[in-house]
Amino acid sequence: MLGKKKNKEIVEPRQICFYLITEMMSLPLETIGQKVGGRNHPTVIYSRDKIADQIKTDRKLAVEINDIKNMLLKK
Q1: Domains of the chain
Q2: pLDDT band for position 69 (50/70/90)?
Q3: Share of the chain above pLDDT 90, in %
Q4: What is the DSSP string of 7-57?
Q5: What is the pTM of this model?
Q6: C-alpha dihedral, 30 to 28 to 14 to 23, nearest 10°
Q7: Is residue 5 scored above 90 in pLDDT?
Q8: How far apart are the C-alpha atoms of 14 and 8, rounded to whole Å?
Q9: What gap in Å lies between CA 38 and CA 61, rounded to an integer?
Q10: CA 56 to CA 61: how far, in whole Å?
Q11: Which of 18, 62, 66 is closest to 44 using CA atoms?
């Protein structure tokens, strides 16, 4: 997930990772991008916004992300 690959099996989890980090932590976007494979902040913004939009229309994705959040928060 930290690499430069752009196939769907890697990109979508990476985008979800960016989304979760930005939602759950108050870190600068540049820092998030650097920690996740050396990406720049526009990549983090794009990923965050893309997943946020998908959650609005894809109920399965919304449930999966909520489950991940709960696991991270141990709820």
Answers
A1: 8-73 (1.10.1750.10)
A2: very high
A3: 72
A4: SHHHHHHHHHHHHHHHHH----HHHHHHHTTS--HHHHHHHHHHHHHHHHH
A5: 0.86
A6: -160
A7: no
A8: 10
A9: 26
A10: 9
A11: 18
Tokens matching residue 11: 């990109």
Q: Which pair of structure tokens corresponds to residue 12?
A: 């979508």
Give the pair of three-digit tokens for residue 22.
């930005």
Rounded to whole angstroms, how far apart are CA atoms 47 and 52?
A: 8
State the Cα angle at 73 between 18 and 69, rounded to 5°.
40
Cα separation of 67 and 33, whole Å? Answer: 24
Cα distances (angstroms) measured from residue 41 to each of 6, 11, 28, 67 = 17, 16, 9, 26
Residue for token pair 């050396």: 38
